[in-house]
Q: What sequence folds into this?
C-alpha cells in the first residue's frame, strides 16, 4: 500500500483548514486526481463499515452476495448453519475471482480457474492435484475473512476482521430510527426492486447533492420537490457522529391526483449509505466509488407486506426521477470544475449545513489517514 504525504496529494493543510472553517470546499483537483482517489479508497472506504446488501439477498442457507469495498472484491455467504460470513472474493490459489455473481442455493464456492472449492464458512474443501503436495494443508488456505454484521434489514462489511462493532461506530443509528418509528424488522419487508445508476462524477459530488435540499425546489420541482414540502424552514435535519438525518412533510396537494406521503425520514450513514422510510416503503441507496470521476449508485426498494403495489410503483417512479436528476447535476459539475479557471466551492451555511458537515467528515478522514490528527 502506498503511503502518501499531503504534498504527494497536492494538499495545503493549513489552507484547507481555513477553507473548511469558512464554508468552502476541498480543492477541486480532489474530484479527479487518481492519486487522491487511491488515497480516499484507503483512508475512507477501506477503513469503515460499508453497506453491502439488503439481508433479503442472503436470507437462506446457500445464498451469496458479492460487492466492492474500496479496491477489494468481497462476498457474503449465508452458511448452512445460518451464520453470515464475509470474505475477500478471491481464490487462495492464484487470486482469481471466486464468485462471479450473486447466487442462491449454493453449497460450495468453486473457482472456475482451477476448481479450488470452499464451503460457505470459507474452508478449503477441494484443491485438485494437491493430495501428495509436500507441505500442503487445506486448513492453511481458507478464504481471507472480513467482519460482517446485520442491522435490521441491512448487511454491512468491514475489511478489518477485528473492526470495532458497527453499533459502536454508529451509536446514533438505533436511537434515531427508533424515535422516528422506522420499522427495521426484515420480516416486515420484501425486496421489491433494485436499480443501478452509473454516474460519471466523483463520489463527493454525489454526497453534496444527496445531503442538501437547497436545490429541491428547482432541480426536483417535478419529482421530490412536488411530493414534499421543500420550502426553506419547512423541514428538519440533525447532524451527529458520522450521520445526517432529514424529516420532510408531504405537500398539501396530492401528487398525480392521489399520492401523498404521511411519514418520511432519511439518514445518511457515512460513507455511502442512504436509508429512507416513507410510509410502507423503505429505500436503501448505496454509493460505491468506481473511479476518480465515476461512482455507482444502487437503489433497493423494500415494500412492506400488504402495501399497494400500484402506489409503490408510483413512488418508485418519483424516486428514480429524483436520483436521475441528481446524477445529471453532478455530471455537469464534474465537467465544469475541470476548467482551468474553475473556483473552489463556497457552501451556504443556512441551507447546506449537512453538506458542510459531510465535507468536514471527509477532510477529518484525510487528516486521520495522513497522521495529522488521532484516529
A:
Amino acid at each position: 500500500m502506498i503511503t502518501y504525504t499531503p504534498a504527494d496529494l497536492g494538499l495545503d493543510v493549513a489552507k484547507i483548514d481555513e477553507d473548511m472553517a469558512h464554508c468552502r470546499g476541498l480543492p477541486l483537483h480532489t474530484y479527479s486526481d487518481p492519486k487522491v482517489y487511491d488515497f480516499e479508497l484507503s483512508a475512507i472506504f477501506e477503513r469503515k463499515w460499508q453497506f453491502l446488501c439488503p439481508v433479503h439477498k442472503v436470507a437462506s442457507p446457500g445464498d451469496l452476495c458479492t460487492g466492492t469495498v474500496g479496491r477489494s472484491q468481497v462476498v457474503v455467504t449465508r452458511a448452512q448453519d445460518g451464520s453470515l460470513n464475509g470474505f475477500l472474493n478471491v481464490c487462495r490459489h492464484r487470486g482469481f475471482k471466486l464468485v462471479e455473481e450473486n447466487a442462491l442455493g449454493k453449497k460450495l464456492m468453486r473457482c472456475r480457474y482451477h476448481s479450488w472449492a470452499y464451503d460457505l464458512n470459507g474452508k478449503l474443501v477441494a484443491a485438485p492435484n494437491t493430495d501428495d503436495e509436500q507441505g500442503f494443508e487445506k486448513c492453511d488456505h481458507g478464504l481471507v475473512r472480513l467482519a460482517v454484521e446485520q442491522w435490521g434489514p441491512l448487511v454491512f462489511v468491514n475489511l478489518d476482521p477485528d473492526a470495532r462493532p458497527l453499533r459502536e461506530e454508529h451509536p446514533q443509528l438505533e436511537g434515531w430510527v427508533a424515535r422516528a418509528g422506522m420499522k427495521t424488522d426484515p420480516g416486515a419487508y420484501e425486496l421489491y426492486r433494485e436499480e443501478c445508476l452509473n454516474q460519471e462524477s466523483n463520489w463527493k459530488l454525489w454526497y453534496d447533492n444527496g445531503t442538501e435540499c437547497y436545490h429541491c425546489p428547482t432541480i426536483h420541482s417535478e419529482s421530490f420537490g412536488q411530493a414534499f414540502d421543500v420550502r426553506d424552514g419547512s423541514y428538519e435535519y440533525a447532524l451527529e457522529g458520522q450521520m445526517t438525518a432529514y424529516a420532510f412533510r408531504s405537500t398539501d396537494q396530492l401528487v398525480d391526483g392521489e399520492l401523498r406521503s404521511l411519514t418520511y425520514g432519511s439518514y445518511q450513514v457515512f460513507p455511502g449509505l442512504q436509508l429512507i422510510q416513507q410510509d410502507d416503503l423503505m429505500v436503501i441507496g448505496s454509493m460505491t466509488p468506481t473511479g476518480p470521476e465515476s461512482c455507482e449508485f444502487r437503489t433497493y426498494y423494500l415494500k412492506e407486506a400488504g402495501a399497494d403495489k400500484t402506489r409503490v410503483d408510483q413512488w418508485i417512479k418519483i424516486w428514480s426521477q429524483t436520483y436521475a436528476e441528481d446524477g445529471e447535476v453532478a455530471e455537469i459539475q464534474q465537467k465544469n470544475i475541470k476548467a482551468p479557471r474553475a473556483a473552489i466551492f463556497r457552501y451556504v451555511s443556512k441551507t447546506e449545513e449537512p453538506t458542510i458537515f459531510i465535507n468536514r467528515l471527509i477532510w477529518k478522514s484525510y487528516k486521520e489517514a495522513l497522521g495529522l490528527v488521532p484516529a
